[in-house]
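For consistency, the fold was encoded as tokens, as this record shows:
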Amino acid sequence: MSGQLVCILSPAGSSSMCLSVNAYDAKTIIIDNFYNDPYLGWVSWTQFDLGDGSFALWHTDSGAKLVAAADGSLSLRPGDMNSTQGYTDDERWSIVVADINGGAWGFFKNHITDSLRSYSEGLAIRPVLNTDRNLNILGNGPYNWGSVVAAWDGWGNGEPNEVWGIVPFPTATTADVQQVADAAE
């Protein structure tokens, strides 16, 4: 099984942000500033298409799967990224093209692409365990690096803290990613 190295971008916040693991405790799922540096593994994920419309996200630096608990909390589960093992529902994710209109999301609709599925709109990333939940930066903003991410129960109509873009990493440049933050202003 092979995967694609990706960065999962958020337009929330005042600068370029991406899904990350807290580099200090190596377990809390947060947003962090985007760095165009392939050696900074805490902002890098490996996306595996599981062939049934779902995918797995492995944190590239730690070699652990992103898991959503029934209460929406996120964690990393150690495993063997090279194994063709089965995945449980709490380790599977799905993508839904966000139902949003223009405005700040024009950038997502025109520029962000998930290279595995050719989406060109903002994406809601949902755990298969409960598709009423979405990856969400918790709180009401401002969203700064270190803000915690969870699988929130509910949809806020495409708010910046709940819509994501998936781009190949490290081929995205800082200038490309900055456009995501600019689009949300």
Summary: Helices lie at 106-111, 174-183.
